[in-house]
Specification:
It is globular and about 60 Å long. With 293 residues, it is of the alpha/beta class. It contains twelve helices and five strands. Strands 2-1-3-4-5 form a five-stranded parallel beta sheet, sandwiched between helices.
């Protein structure tokens, strides 16, 4: 009888130890199929924060017009693709100075409006850039009069056409879109310079800058109309860009930037100075390299 009791106790002890042993190591016994489940791979982000080449399209701001001298482009200080150490352009920040010299291209044209962007984009795609920068719209608002400004519908159609031109050839290219600058702030800053106001009389952005000292109701309404149109353009840029998973709008950062006279050309008090170009490069770099939400 004693032997039978010891035999049963031994069997029960072995069974308990065996069960406890499985749980003690965190359930490490094989799955029913005898294999472990493979970990899920991390999804590849749609947005590449370090593209390998950059092409720029747009207007005189991206050509750095009047940044280095009077009435001339100065692309070496362009916020997008310039080589100047003072500016530290977006291309240089992303690629390094040596690679930027070989892998960045500037197709912006002084005086261009949004309607010119599809043609510029067609030239840019021949380089197969991994990132295209867009800054356009100031010239659509800067017309002879407020009534002559590009309509919002035409502005939208041209921007959509430009993106379609890109996508037909380069479906995976990324796009950085800068907002249109605050032209009314430009008026309020530049009008502090008597020389600047004299230069504006030559015909620089008359819809906003004509009669710079006029503060009557008609002048206020004219400037407010231009300001509203710029805001409408920026909303178009945001909406159209949001429909493309490889497009990033700056969120209105360029428009909201509180620039002063130091950021304006000392030749026309309208275009960005070298310092202004550097500030645009900073905004672009922050947007392009920001982590996805």
């Amino acid at each position: 009888m004693r032997n039978r009791v010891w035999s049963v106790a031994a069997v029960l002890t072995a069974a308990v130890v065996g069960v406890a042993g499985c749980d003690a190591v965190g359930g490490s016994s094989p799955s029913p199929t005898g294999t472990r489940a493979a970990p899920s791979p991390s999804p590849t982000p749609v947005w590449d924060r370090s593209p390998g080449s950059v092409a720029a399209v747009g207007d005189s701001i991206t050509r750095a017009f009047d940044a280095c001298g009077v009435l001339s482009d100065c692309p070496e200080v362009s916020w997008a693709t310039g080589s100047s150490a003072e500016v530290d352009s977006l291309a240089v920040r992303l690629l390094g100075r040596a690679r930027a010299a070989e892998r960045s291209w500037n197709y912006a044209v002084t005086g261009a409006r949004m309607a010119d962007l599809p043609g510029q984009m067609a030239r840019a795609v021949t380089r197969s850039p991994e990132l295209v920068t867009v800054m356009a719209g100031a010239n659509d608002a800067c017309r002879q009069s407020a009534a002559a400004m590009t309509t919002v519908a035409d502005f939208r159609a041209s921007f959509e056409d430009a993106l379609h031109t890109l996508r037909r050839s380069l479906p995976k290219a990324q796009v950085y879109v800068a907002s249109v600058p605050d032209l009314k702030r430009l008026w309020s800053q530049g009008r502090t310079s008597d020389l600047g106001k004299q230069v504006w009389k030559l015909g620089i952005c008359p819809s906003m800058l004509a009669d710079a000292d006029a503060l009557d109701a008609a002048a206020d309404e004219r400037r407010a109309t231009v300001q509203r149109r710029v805001e409408e353009y920026n909303e178009v840029l945001r909406e159209v860009c949001a429909k493309d998973e490889r497009c990033r709008f700056d969120g209105g950062a360029v428009y909201a930037y509180r620039f002063g006279v130091a950021q304006l050309s000392r030749w026309d008090w309208f275009h960005p100075s070298v310092d202004g170009q550097a500030r645009l490069a900073e905004i672009a770099y922050r947007t392009v390299t920001a982590k996805e939400a």
